[in-house]
Write a structure and sequence with these properties.
417 residues, alpha+beta, BirA Bifunctional Protein, domain 2, Rossmann fold, 2 domains, nine-stranded mixed beta sheet, five-stranded mixed beta sheet, 13 helices, elongated, binds histidyl-adenosine monophosphate
Length: 417
């Protein structure tokens, strides 16, 4: 009867990923690289729940209309509260900082690597769940803070093996944008259209951009890259002093969130096969006024794991998967298992990571399993090995065998690490 029932799909929910060990190993590599760089700059790690009250994303100040209206995962809990799976971390960290404003020391340097959820159409670089490094600095109005945040971003790229030619940091300014809007007396609707148009600039033909701009009554000359706003000029100068020269002013960088108030930036991949924004951020000086009258100023960025992986992939910078297990112990016959287990215990006591086969398959199949697990070395425990006390350690990639005594085994594997 049950065999006639339709079986469940083995696919994960649309737009989210399963992490098999090789994916998890890459994720761990991302995490450790993010952590090392952030901590080197004096940032400390925080974390929070994925659940937030829906209202956190609805205020005018925090709003990104598309995100709130079309992309949040929101539900009503059993107590009637409206709950959202966080689509980004910035409102959460602003809440946490506002909650402890008296205890925390400023400038405050915080980082986190949360998973965030957005109901987007899954496509290259975009999924419904991704992990996002958030690096944020609170309590400083200095443009040096904006510069530091961008320097952290550039250093992360370097730590992954990217060269300055591999990416470009494009910096814009909300201050400049707001003054332009005032100067042109754009209506609310025209402002929205103008900002959306700037955001789309690189995705549409230049002629279409120019025509729409003209319809809105914005002279193209006002968007000239030669008139760099002061705040961007200062940031570019300090970055250059730090040896970061792949940054440029780009007046079309505006970013989608209403909370940005100053310098905004996006990092672009320069590879022809992956020419897109990798990540971005900016200054947001009023977000904590959602919770309190007195604002705590902030600046930071969010960097997604999906776009980072694509970036590393097109350049051959993905690390090769190496499992933590260094040795597979196979057995010649089922009666040798207990000896294999004892040998494994001896070596584990010396910190060697070992998996043991239980001998319920042929030796050839045991070796096949070790290969599928990408375990680099294998030895067989059988009558001969037990009597002689010598084990042939086979390198599964080359087939080369090294005969080692029991006492030599541990040092052989520890020397590999
Ligand atoms: P965001 O531009 O919406 O900014 O997202 C930051 C980065 O997260 C994107 O550039 C991209 O790398 C990644 N990302 C966003 N959505 C997706 C998706 N659907 N799939 C995969 N990756 C995605 C923010 O979220 C701001 N809260 C960042 C920030 C922090 N600003 C200041 N501090």
């Amino acid at each position: 009867m049950s065999s006639k029932k339709e079986k469940l799909s083995v696919e994960p929910y649309k737009g989210v990923r399963d992490f098999y060990p090789e994916d998890q190993a890459f994720y761990n590599y991302l995490l450790s690289t993010y952590r090392q760089v952030a901590e080197r700059f004096g940032y400390v790690e925080y974390h929070a729940s994925v659940l937030e009250p829906a209202e956190l994303y609805k205020s005018k100040n925090a709003e990104n209309e598309e995100l709130v209206n079309e992309q949040t995962y929101t539900f009503v809990d059993r107590g009637g509260r409206e709950v959202t799976l966080r689509p980004e971390m910035t409102p959460t960290v602003a809440r946490m900082v506002a909650a402890r404003r008296r205890e925390l020391g400023f400038p405050l340097r915080f980082f986190s690597i949360p998973n965030v959820f957005r109901y987007e159409r899954p496509q290259r670089g975009r999924l419904r769940e991704h992990w996002q490094l958030n690096v944020d600095l609170f309590g400083s109005k200095s443009l040096t803070a904006d510069t530091e945040i961008i320097a952290v971003a550039a250093e992360i790229m370097r730590a992954f093996g990217a060269t300055p030619n591999d990416f470009e940091i494009r910096i814009g300014s909300r201050i400049f944008l707001d003054s332009l809007i005032t100067q042109l007396s754009l209506s609310d609707d025209a402002t929205k259209e103008f900002v959306a148009l700037l955001d789309r600039r690189r995705k549409i033909p230049a002629a279409e951009f120019d025509a729409t701009l003209a319809e809105l009554g914005v002279p193209l000359a006002l968007l000239s890259t030669s008139d760099t706003p002061d705040e961007v000029r200062v940031v570019l100068k300090t970055l250059a002093e730090l040896g970061i020269n792949n940054a440029v002013y780009d007046p079309s960088i505006v970013r989608g969130f209403a909370y940005y108030t100053g310098v905004v930036f996006e990092v672009f991949d320069t590879h022809p096969d992956n020419n897109r924004a990798l990540f971005g951020g900016g200054r947001y000086d009023n977000l904590t006024t959602l919770f309190d009258d007195e604002p705590i100023v902030g600046v930071g960025f969010g960097m997604g794991d999906v776009s980072m992986r694509n970036f590393l992939e097109v350049r051959g910078l993905l690390p090769v998967y190496v499992p933590p297990t260094k040795l597979y112990i196979a057995v010649a016959a089922p009666e040798d298992v207990s000896h294999a287990l004892m040998l494994a215990q001896e070596l584990r006591a010396q910190n060697v990571a070992i998996a043991v086969d239980f001998g319920d398959k042929k030796l050839a199949d045991q070796i096949k399993a070790a290969t599928k697990h990408h375990i680099p070395y294998l030895l067989v425990v059988g009558e001969n090995e037990i009597t002689s006390g010598t084990f042939a350690v086979r390198d599964l990639a080359t087939g080369k065998e090294t005969p080692l005594s029991r006492t030599e085994l541990a040092s052989f594997f520890l020397a590999l690490a």
